[in-house]
Amino acid sequence: MSELGGGGPRLGRLEATVMDCVWDVEGTLSVREVMDLLRRDRQIAYTTVMTVMENLHRKGLLRRELRGRAYHYRSVRSREEHTTQVISQVLAFSRDRTATLLHFVDQMDPDEVTRLRDALTSPDPDTASQPRPPSSPSPPEQD
User: What residues contact residue 35 under an 8 Å CB cut-off, 6+ apart?
Assistant: First the structure.
């Protein structure tokens, strides 16, 4: 796999699919459990899944522990933390990070832009990053 910048590795298509399985489940997963999840959409060999998960472990994306005769894996970082790392790697190649970010914001959904603006101006970033409840229509004006 190629790398961006000096950070972590980019994910290939199958690696990203395996990581999605791991991120979507609380706790740990064995190779067999990941294979069973993947087989809902495709035929895939146990050894292929085992190799991909070993590669992800070697790249520092998965942590593993031996339980009996099988390794169980969990993600080292959350999906959001991984995405942040990838975005940072992409920005490292930009000659003008601000312009790059502004182009990115221009492509965002207006609700996401509002949430981003709120997060940037909030004194408590933890609450600003929480999803907002759907807005209710304003009551009709009375004369």
Answer: 44, 46, 49
Burial-class residue 53 by CB neighbours within 10 Å (0-12, 13-18, 19+).
buried
- 52 phi and psi, to 5 degrees? -65, -45
- The whole-model pTM stands at 0.70
Buried b (16+ CB within 10 A) or exposed e, 62-98: bebeeeeeebbbebbbeeeebeeebeebeeeeeeeee
Pair of tokens at residue 43: 């035929």
CA 51, CA 78: separation in Å to the nearest integer? 22
Mean pLDDT (whole number) for 11-18: 94
Question: DSSP code of 9?
Answer: B
